[in-house]
Specification:
The protein contains 13 helices and 29 strands. With 560 residues, it is of the alpha/beta class.
Amino acid sequence: MAIETNDTTIKEKPSNFLDEIIQESIAKGETRVQTRFPPEPNGYLHIGHAKSICINFGLAQKYGGKCNLRFDDTNPVKEDVEYVDAIKRDIHWLGFDWAIERYASDYFDQLYEWAVALIKKGLAYVDDQTQEQIRETRGTVTVPGKESPWRNRSVEENLDLFERMKNGEFPDGSKVLRAKIDMAHPNMLFRDPIMYRILHAEHHRTGNKWCIYPMYDYAHGQCDSIEQITHSICTLEFDVHRPLYDWFIEQLGIYPSHQYEFARLNLTYTMMSKRRLLKLVQEGAVMGWDDPRMPTICALRRKGYTPASVRNFAEMVGVAKRDNVIDLGKLEYCVREDLNKVAERRMAVLNPLKVVITNYPEEKHELFTAINNPEDESAGTRQVPFSREIYIERDDFMEVPPKKYYRLSPGNEVRLRYSYLIKCEEVIKDAEGNVIELRCTYDPMSGNGSSSDGRRVKGVIHWVSVPDAFEAEIRLFNPLFTKEDPDDVPEGGSWEDNLNPDSMVVTRGYLEPSLKEAPIGQPFQFERVGYFCADTDSTPEHPVFNRTVTLKDSWAKINK
């Protein structure tokens, strides 16, 4: 079966409840699909927002509709153009574009007029109580709230006071505008919610035009209505807000946008709280919002994740109605799968052991052809220099090997990737008995993948040429927290106690010369090691590479 809408044929994919809702609407003849992504510009987006982006933009694309980008800029104290620009960068990086760009502040005049209309209908009033007094009189789930002494002001007095609030006659916190609903309502959000508060603060777009600002519950549904959003998709914590969303729209008699909720994304070993992430940044526990250990989209980008891997992850975890926790390994699986297809291969030695090939001519220097990506023939080949002295990984040598050990050991032979067979003849140690160098011989006739007598070996190891390789700083990243649930702490403990002291391990490595010109962020597979990319800190004088992900999941095994 295929769905036809706006002359666009949509191939059927596994449905989720949001798909089913849209398909039911289409079956009734309501073919227009208009979504929106409404971030507050008070911080950087994280992987949870990426899922929401993929859902909102993805559904619009799938059903031939449109998705708006609307910034919920109703709190000038916490918002900044820096975050606006970062959010737009992140959306574009993920591969999406919006139909129109809007801000809640675009609608401040209309929102004010609608608030006046509610006052005239006797459905809103100015309250002189403080925020603390309002909280104290709201009641509990089992105890009804108490009505404000200012609840029965006349319409004329409320109109006068609200206009004077707008004109800046009152200080911050001295008055609020509240909806007049029901102080005994079982949904506590209906107990005369605040619609406007006084904030004498400069707004990043409207400057000092306004000193009263609408609350989320008042502004959000009306902004959706103005844009005629057909499917206002939010995370599950907003489901209790939906009746209030509908109430304002019904009382104003405006376009009936409707809200739908899905489960937010929770990842193991990951903290999603924007407030806590900000604390990590401010206290220097991480290098910034784009620190590769952070769950922010800009951090994933810096770490070397691809847009496709994040989109594939969002599709893999799907859309659920109940909160659950997703294994971090699924995200890493998605990036491995994508990088295996697109990342060119290179050789790098991160824990070097020097090898001298004693029968290789000292003056000789040659090039071997290496495959850039066996998964992609169009990636072509490159030339890798070879010389008498090379580095291999220290883990690829064992002086006393166990049975079925196929790497280098005394008297044993291995193949150097793309190059010759070598045999370990002598082990050089320092005064403390540490192995510092190997003396090997090579088979001059084995450079074409065979050998002088047709013999074959099982072990193949990577290497770099000592005179040609360059040294680089290597940053090995692990999860930021030691526990799957960072909040899993004993009584009196703090989530910060679970910060992983080994979340970033800095080492030095030797890389083949073709990596000297590696563009910032371009992914590479360091053969037999993992996926890496040049960091934003990298310079020609001080190259820095980040590990995006290991070739295999070692974290889960180590921490069981």
